[in-house]
Amino acid sequence: MTGLAVTCRRVVHIYRADAGDVVALAGVDLHIAPGEMVAFVGPSGSGKSTLIALLAGLMRPSAGRVGIGTYDMGKLSDAEISRLRGTEVGVVLQGAARNLLPYASLHRNIWLAQTRAAGTRGVKLDDPERILDLVGLGGQGKAKVGQLAPGARQRAALAVGIAAGPGLLLVDEPTSQLDAEGRDEVVHALETVNAERGTTIVVVTHDGEVGNRLGRAVTIRDGRVGAEGRDGQDFAVVAGDGTIQLPPEVLGEFPPGTLFTVDRSNGGVTLLANGEPVGEQGLDVAARQADAPV
Ligand SMILES: Nc1ncnc2c1ncn2[C@@H]1O[C@H](COP(=O)(O)OP(=O)(O)OP(=O)(O)O)[C@@H](O)[C@H]1O
After folding, report:
1. 6-221 to CATH, choices 3.40.50.300, 1.10.260.40, 2.40.50.100, 3.10.580.10
2. pLDDT tens, 23-48?
3. How far does residue 15's CA lie from ligand 1's centre (Å)?
4. Which of 12, 55, 113, 141 has the fewest CB within 10 Å, making it most exposed?
5. C-alpha gyration radius of the chain
6. Do 182 and 209 meet the contact criterion of CB atoms below 8 Å apart?
């Protein structure tokens, strides 16, 4: 199937705990086009894993809307979400072993994922050998998962994640335990799946290099989209409620309480901070439409 779009509108997630509520996501606005590859990056505890868990339907948001393709996740029953996960949405959890049966062969791991998906209607399944080719494990179908090197095991987990031909693949920290070579192989496998199948791919990662390689890196900061990097350029992002997060180093120059004026007199938009054009204070302001091609 072709890639699925992902849309988040004002998504909020609150964990209820005895010690007090934790606001993990405080209003995420995001659109991912079909067939895009995106990394969620950001500091520990910023909300990346929570966001990917909501996209996977493993949890439901406290407020806001999560859309996957034509589905409004909030309107689906638990049974419909379970069917979606494992067919149209592939999920690869952090730690390759959690996605695999270690004593079974690669072929059997893929077969099991496909058998689960085949129980639902309308799923056309790929040849397991073709799936292994996509992740660089062609010809190794008889190998037991437990015998594979860590990088190959992570790619085996990807193979299981794409076994049913999902339109969206969600992957949590695929390179965290790997050396540079293993990381390159995993990123190459993701690129190949994306190029050959048009699958939309979302990866949570601490590795900035993985973010750069995927082309679009969305920085989650304090439970919101803090910034975006596209093809090596960094952007601040205007959220659905009109707020914009500035990087911490820029906030040093424009602390909370700074007064901005929006001047439209020159036909464009100029920001004046405390009466001075922002550019003169060392920050150039360039805007582009969110959906403009990169
Ligand atoms: N089950 C939970 N109960 C209560 N609070 C939680 C729970 N899971 C996560 N949190 C809190 O929610 C916030 C966001 O956590 P989350 O795991 O989504 O961040 P993260 O960016 O993925 O972090 P990391 O990179 O360390 O995995 C953090 O403050 C975290 O402590």
Report:
1. 3.40.50.300
2. 999 999 999 999 999 999 988 999 99
3. 9
4. 12
5. 21
6. no
